Amino acid sequence: MNKNNGFLNNTQKLNQLLLSRFNWFTNKADDHEIIRRISDNVSLSGSTPWILIFAILTASIGLNINSPAVIIGAMLISPLMGPIMGAGLGVAIYDFSMFKHALLNLVMATIISLLVSTLYFVISPLHEAQSELLSRISPSIWDVLIALFGGFAGIIGISRKETSNVIPGVAIATALMPPVCTAGFGIATGQWNFVVGALYLYAINCVFICLSTIIGIRILRLKRVDFANPQLEKKVKISLFVITIATAIPSAYLTVNLVRNEIFTSTVTQFVYDEFSNDDTQIANLKINANTRTVDIALIGAYVTPEQLNQIKSKLILSKLENTKILVHQTNNNNMDISALKSGLLNDLYFNTQATLQQKDQEIQKLQNQILTENALLNDADEIFEELKVQYPSIVSVFIGQGVHVASDDNKEKLIELNIYSQKNLHAADKTRIENWFKVRAKPNNVMINFLLRP
């Protein structure tokens, strides 16, 4: 009897410990404060639309240049979480006026985001789909879980007495901004698979953040605004269930395909290297298309005969790779020497490197000659002046210096500048002779000669 009592006491203590550690009501803010915090972030007015526009532009640039840091920054300043949580709050407490208001603001924010991102990608000269863009068009069940768990973290964070950094973290984890921008990229470039995939990911985030907000508010037992009769409550539950299932089912299907394709790719890769790669034969290239179950292999080295190839293909069933098509490309030279091939590649690399080094040496030599000529001209300024003075007595002084000529088309040209000051204008023929003489002396530098009067 005492043992049973001791066991019950220990169980009760453990339950109390767990409840105190994992209690949603610990440090919970007042119900009115929770509603106020969420409601304040619902409206898309005043400065909020501008914040949204600049966040969309920032995210679009980040996706365009494939910069995760820039995309994260855009997610931190995005105001999209407010209307989504507001819609969840409205459903949870049966405040349907708040729900309609939040839904209207979410639709407006989505339209603005699509317009701004589309306009950016129309103007942008970069139209290549980077990895950050590609990762937003194939949602899976993991995106559903991320949105759901992130939403739970968000409602817990916003319902505490003290403010926390949970909401920015949720914004980063659920990534609301990038899918909308990716849809804008798809519209701008006419790639509708980007539009459909990205908007579906955006819908997943919106629906499941909203759902977790509803569940969180119900757990926190916030007071309902409107009286809900059993019929209305049943209607709301059925609507939530239908929307949730309808949103999740395609992602589950895509996840199954994703997992199946990953398993196929991994199995095929292992099979190909086990069967084709050896001391005599090497795999030069391997392409796997999991959707069509096609494997394209390029081989170098010992020739694989049709009999050997058929024998290898017969093993596909044992590896659970039935209906897999293998295409093999190889040389017809049975005696191909891989070592000789490697040696040839190394020789080509050596000669290409030598040619590059010789070209660099020539460029360095040219620059050295140019510098030597420049220094010689500057050091021989007195001699140049005396030579000119003897031939043209009206010359009173010269200026020799280095300069950079900048044109309106941003082209820059380094040159030697010679200013000749004379008491009277020199004849055109004299000027031509001086120009030709100085160009020869200043080779290989470009020159600029100015004839100026100094009475």
Summarize the structure.
This protein is mainly α and 455 residues long.
Account of the protein in words:
The chain is mainly α. It has two domains: 22-227, Up-down Bundle (Glycerol uptake facilitator protein); 338-455, GMP Synthetase, Chain A, domain 3, CATH 3.30.300. The protein has 16 helices and six strands. The chain has a three-stranded mixed beta sheet, covered by helices on one side. A hairpin with a 4-residue loop joins strand 1 (281-289) and strand 2. Helix 3 (48-64) packs antiparallel against helix 4 (68-77) and helix 4 (68-77) packs across helix 9. The longest helix has 47 residues, at 230-276. 27% of the residues are buried.
Order of helices and strands: HHHHHHHHHHHHEEHEHHEEHE
Strand content: 5-15%
**Gross CATH architecture of the largest domain:** Up-down Bundle
The overall pLDDT average reads 81
Write the layout of secondary structure elements.
Elements: H1 2-21, H2 31-40, H3 48-64, H4 68-77, H5 81-92, H6 96-123, H7 131-134, H8 141-158, H9 166-174, H10 177-189, H11 192-220, H12 230-276, E1 281-289, E2 294-301, H13 306-313, E3 325-330, H14 338-379, H15 381-391, E4 395-406, E5 412-422, H16 428-442, E6 446-453
Parallel strand pairs: 2-3, 5-6
Antiparallel strand pairs: 1-2, 4-5
Helix pairs in contact: 2-5, 3-4, 3-6, 3-10, 4-9, 5-6, 5-11, 6-10, 8-9, 8-11, 8-12, 10-11, 11-12
